[in-house]
Amino acid sequence: MRDEKRNFTIPFYALLIGAWYTALQITFPAFSSAQPPEFSIQSITNQPSASSSGMLSDQPKSRTFLRVAEGKASYYSNQFHGRRTANGETFDMNELTAAHPSLPFGTWVRVINLRNGKDVVVRINDRGPFVRGRIIDLSAGAAKRIGLFKSGTANVRIEPVKHSPEDPMAG
């Protein structure tokens, strides 16, 4: 009898976690009145997409656009340091990376702390945050750069970046 109960609880909790995750999908708040130019994720990541035949194509399957968004940011650090991120990398809390609920992995975004004006460019390599009302989770290294490490959260603006900060062709 005890084994039958255990076999039932695992799928039940998996279903419960799935429902919880779906309910917490975060949407961007209203965009500012001055509409920034639209950037396609394809041009931001500079990665070709794979077609259904497996061949790489210069045309993305769907056009996803990133605009400026504002909301609350937080950071995550030592409890996840050394673990795998959603894209398979090993999380390093000192790198300039972030977790976002929907942006493609490899997307570069500028995160600006609205309280002090400090900014940092981060690469999306994980999924999250899983707290209602937050739009991005930063690594500890990124949080220190914009001054939200001590407070834990801050109101931020997320802006698209066409190239990585290390790209010599970025202008």
Automatic annotation (TrEMBL):
Q: Which GO terms describe its molecular function?
A: lytic endotransglycosylase activity
Keywords (alphabetical) are: Cell wall biogenesis/degradation, Lipoprotein, Lyase, Membrane, Transmembrane, Transmembrane helix
SUPFAM superfamilies on file:
Barwin-like endoglucanases
Q: Name one GO biological process term.
A: peptidoglycan metabolic process
Keyword Signal among record annotations: no
Q: Which residues cross the membrane?
A: 12-31
Q: What is its EC number?
A: 4.2.2.-
All copies of domain RlpA-like protein double-psi beta-barrel, residue ranges: 69-158
Q: Does the keyword Transmembrane apply?
A: yes
Q: Which InterPro entries match?
A: RlpA, RlpA-like_DPBB, RlpA-like_sf, RplA
- Please tell me which top-level EC class this enzyme sits in: lyase
Functionally, this protein is described as follows: Lytic transglycosylase with a strong preference for naked glycan strands that lack stem peptides.
- Could you say which protein family the record assigns here? Belongs to the RlpA family.
Q: What is this protein called?
A: Probable endolytic peptidoglycan transglycosylase RlpA
